[in-house]
């Protein structure tokens, strides 16, 4: 797999993670949400509104969720500042249901 293909794959996986997080938060009744992502291109795509007109499968639904009546904030966070989140994510591998809320 080339570097370009790998980058596209990572972008899609991270977009899917944001979309699934938005879905879960909405279904659980949360109406204030802060999203942190270490993918600069993804954060910029969502913030600049290119998610609304994008042909990328996951960006349009992200934009639809963000337009709902709730308060959301998305921001870029450097990888070096998200080590705790990475460790928490690794804990979910032991969970038979695939989801762990902290």
From TrEMBL:
GO MF annotation terms: nucleic acid binding; RNA-DNA hybrid ribonuclease activity
CDD domains in alphabetical order: RNase_H_like
Residue ranges of domain RNase H type-1 in the record: 5-90
Name of the protein this chain belongs to: RNase H type-1 domain-containing protein
Organism for this UniProt entry: Gossypium harknessii
């Amino acid at each position: 797999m080339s570097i370009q293909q790998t980058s596209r794959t990572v972008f899609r996986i991270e977009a899917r993670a944001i979309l699934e997080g938005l879905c879960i938060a909405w279904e659980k009744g949360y109406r204030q949400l802060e999203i942190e992502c270490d993918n600069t291109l993804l954060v910029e795509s969502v913030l600049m509104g290119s998610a609304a007109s994008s042909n990328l499968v996951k960006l349009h639904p992200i934009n639809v969720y963000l337009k709902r009546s709730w308060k959301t904030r998305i921001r870029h966070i450097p990888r070096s500042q998200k080590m705790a989140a990475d460790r928490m994510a690794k804990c979910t591998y032991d969970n038979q249901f695939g989801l762990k809320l902290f």
